[in-house]
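Narrative of accomplishments. A recurring question from our advisory board has been how the design workflow behaves on a single, concrete structure rather than in aggregate. To address it, we present the structure tokens for one chain from the evaluation set, followed by the sequence designed for it. No filtering or post-editing was applied between the two.
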């Protein structure tokens, strides 16, 4: 019979994946998973009939408590707060469209619009396909409230969530064209790749120089990119996979950054540049 540690380790990647989807921070997700491990091994849980349900409950409640305090911190953050980019391989299997969609960088960014209970219900329902009665037990709210939280979350995320995502090859090809155009300073080609409502976010966290407000609209985003390219030519740039999707890791003006994208309808609707060094260790460390 497997011991408590063996049982927990079997579930750890899935638990970190759940916590990361709730918090948008791998550091915080790993802390939550470690606290869940301590509670699992310290509470005489060897005879728990459904370890996965027990551990999901512990992680969901810990993450909810942390998310409530994190929202206050993020409101005081210098410039836009963006999720920490991660390698999908660290977060358990991605064998359903829902698991992939809720890990995508654009979806995680949009989930910042949700209240903590809305985010918890949305992730547990959408990513892990749990029934409302089980979610209600996990986060200790009535079933009717779970349904309302999910309905509100879906409504808040409806604008910008496209179920018909491009194939991996199409997404990679589009980002490849973006990368080639940016390397060559070809703003004409970039204009063809960007949507009219494109927005660029830059997260420096007050630790490095970065735009303090989102840059909105095709004209302003092109001017912003053109200005960057004229002042800071690429010193190093390479394609990468971030949150399970094609992205870019680059160095400009000595500053490493990870750039993720929101791709819909064959155009780039969002550009997410993470420059805060605290969030880049997994890609540039």
């Amino acid at each position: 019979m497997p011991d408590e540690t063996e049982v927990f380790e079997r579930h750890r990647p899935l638990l970190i994946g759940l916590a990361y989807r709730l918090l948008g921070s791998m550091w915080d997700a790993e802390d939550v998973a470690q606290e869940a491990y301590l509670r699992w091994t310290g509470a005489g849980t060897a005879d728990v009939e459904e370890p996965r349900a027990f551990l999901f409950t512990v992680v969901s409640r810990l993450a909810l408590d942390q998310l409530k305090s994190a929202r206050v911190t993020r409101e005081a953050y210098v410039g836009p707060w963006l999720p920490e980019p991660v390698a999908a391989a660290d977060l358990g299997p991605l064998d359903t469209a829902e698991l992939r969609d809720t890990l995508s960088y654009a979806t995680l960014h949009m989930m910042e619009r949700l209240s903590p209970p809305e985010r918890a219900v949305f992730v547990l329902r959408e990513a892990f396909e749990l029934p409302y009665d089980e979610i209600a037990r996990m986060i200790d709210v009535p079933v009717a409230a779970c349904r309302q939280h999910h309905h509100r979350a879906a409504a808040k995320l409806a604008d910008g969530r496209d179920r018909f995502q491009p194939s991996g090859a199409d997404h990679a090809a589009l980002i490849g064209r973006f990368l080639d155009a940016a390397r060559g300073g070809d703003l004409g080609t970039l204009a063809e790749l960007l949507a009219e409502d494109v927005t660029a976010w830059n997260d420096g966290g007050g630790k490095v120089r970065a735009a303090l407000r989102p840059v909105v609209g095709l004209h302003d985003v092109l001017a912003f990119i053109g200005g960057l390219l004229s002042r800071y030519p690429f010193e190093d740039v390479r394609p990468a996979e971030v949150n399970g999707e094609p992205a870019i890791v680059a160095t400009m003006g000595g500053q490493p950054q990870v750039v993720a994208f929101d791709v819909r309808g064959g155009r780039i609707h969002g550009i997410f540049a993470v420059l805060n060094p605290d969030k880049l260790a997994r890609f540039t460390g």
